[in-house]
Amino acid sequence: MKTKHLMTVSCTLVTLFLLFSSTVAAAPTSGQGKGALAATADHKVNINTADIATLTTLKGVGPQLAQRIEEFRKNNGPFAKAEDIMQVKGVGEKIFEQNKEVISVK
After folding, report:
1. What is the pLDDT of residues 40-75, one digit of tens each?
2. Domain with residues 30-104, CATH architecture
3. Phi, psi (degrees; rounded to nearest 5) at 104
4. Three-state DSSP string of 29-85
5. Four-residue CA torsion sign, 52, 70, 45, 39
6. What is the separation of C-alpha 102 from the centre of its chain, rounded to a whole number of angstroms?
7. What are the extents of the domains in the chain?
8. pTM for this one?
9. Closest Cα to residue 99, out of 78, 75, 82, 80?
10. Which of 5, 19, 30, 64 has its CA 20 to 30 A from that of 53?
């Protein structure tokens, strides 16, 4: 009887562990806010239409820089090409290079 109970408890613990570990693995990484989809090769970020939360999914872009991108866009119109994001104060070549594959302007 003890063995059967121990086996049931062990199976339950293993199941919970596997369930928890798969949930943690699927959780979003830091830098993503309010349900924004992460910038990946499969999901590009349109820097002409993205909100602040979505802009923060770009590598090296926090809330303040995302706000500057949004303000730049508001004051200067849409970006003509992805490289134009480097015109925003704080977005240099390093940040652009880290994100050039996931940025779109269309």
Report:
1. 556 899 999 999 999 999 999 999 999 999 999 999
2. Orthogonal Bundle (1.10)
3. -130, 160
4. CCCCCCCCCCCCCCCCEECCCCCHHHHCCCCCCCHHHHHHHHHHHHHHCCCCCHHHH
5. negative
6. 11
7. 30-104
8. 0.62
9. 82
10. 19
